[in-house]
Design a protein that fits this description.
heterodimer; A: 6-stranded mixed sheet; 0% helix; B: mainly beta; 4-stranded antiparallel sheet
């Protein structure tokens, strides 16, 4: 059972455009993480959000955790070809760390030069 | 690079055979989690080991088993392989304290024919 739904599933946009990826759940998570995965490699952690309403920025990437800690969004400004990849959100229920991560379905992003 | 290494990187097995996958965790990390990622899906939690004991299990049958060694490295064993076991198997290590990040290896691509 996939508890985290990501949308859109696929996104292809031109270099320089902005985009937002959504991660939604009916469950509350103690923390939520975003990963990017390249083909043939493992996911690489981008950010962890913990507090409801929290906003974190990583260069052109802005991450937000919903007030109720059930959803999150990733906004990319002025997308570049290097942003291409599979973006995964993952929720943790435990306060002891990110054990038993529940991953979303993923958003495959392609940035066209 | 996360410092988590998995071996082998690719493997082809025949249905009914047994397979052992290995993971060397990042220095200082005492928790190892295993995930199965089918093509086009997000990773699914298989189980986790903390200080050599199983610490949680996902919805996988008993033919999926594991071990963690005193140096915190880990093995994933799968018996009686089925075609649907074909997937990318990911190992993630973390230090179980507070909100911590999981660092993934590059994965083992298992193909069952």
């Amino acid at each position: 059972t996939q508890l985290l739904e990501q949308s859109p599933q696929f996104l292809s946009i031109q270099e320089g455009e902005n985009l937002t990826v959504y991660c939604n759940s009916s469950s509350v998570f103690s923390s939520l993480q975003w990963y990017r995965q390249e083909p043939g490699e493992g996911p690489v952690l981008l950010v962890t959000v913990v507090t409801g309403g929290e906003v974190k920025k990583l260069k052109r990437l802005t991450f937000q955790f919903g007030d109720a800690r059930k959803d999150s969004s990733l906004h990319i400004t002025a997308a570049q070809p290097g942003d291409t990849g599979l973006y995964l959100c993952a929720g943790a229920r435990s306060n002891f760390g990110n054990e038993k991560l529940t991953f979303g379905t993923g958003t495959r992003l392609t940035i066209i030069p | 690079e996360t410092g988590v290494t998995q071996s082998p990187t690719h493997l082809i097995k025949t249905r009914g055979q047994q397979v052992t996958l290995r993971c060397s965790s990042q220095s200082g990390h005492n928790t190892v989690s295993w995930y199965q990622q089918a093509l086009g899906q997000g990773p699914q939690f298989i189980f986790q080991y903390y200080r050599e004991e199983e610490n949680g299990r996902g919805n996988f049958p008993p033919r999926f088993s594991g071990l963690q060694f005193p140096n915190y490295s880990s093995e994933l064993n799968v018996n009686a392989l089925e075609l649907d076991d074909s997937a990318l198997y990911l190992c993630a290590s973390s230090y179980r304290q507070g909100v911590t990040e999981a660092f993934f290896g590059q994965g083992t691509r298992l193909t069952v024919v």
